[in-house]
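Deliverable D4.2, example record:
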Amino acid sequence: KTARATLNVEYDPEQFPGLVYRLEKPKTATLIFSSGKMVCTGAKSEKEVHKAVNLILKDLRDVGIIDVNSEPIIQIQNIVASASLGTDLNLELAAYTLPNVMYEPEQFPGLIYRMKNPKVVLLLFTTGKLVVTGAKREEEIYTAVENVLNTLTELDITRK
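Output generated by the structure prediction step:
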């Protein structure tokens, strides 16, 4: 076995049906299932996902666990990112003004905004911080943040 394979793999089928393979560079955790499917988490970019998957496949080939030399089919399913708009937000006003929102501050401090284009979900907080989830491409994150900032500014929901 390679040192990387020996040091960074966890497998306890009674706790979880997949093998957990951790890499330091790029810093990722990849779940590998008996079906051959893999879920890579923690990558900071699409490029890092490809690097991590290819490193893991090389290790698995090197130790004889797999005998496949074809390129993996990598599909980005969900990109999660955080950002700061640099301004406070009036979430009460946003809840009444924006479409497709859910805001119940007694349950959760953030406003949940389901954006149509790009099709992502944003969690907005009074501090102006936000989380974007559901993107399939990095560009969708940038577009969503730009769109939401423009919309909030136009509707005077930002507090300078």
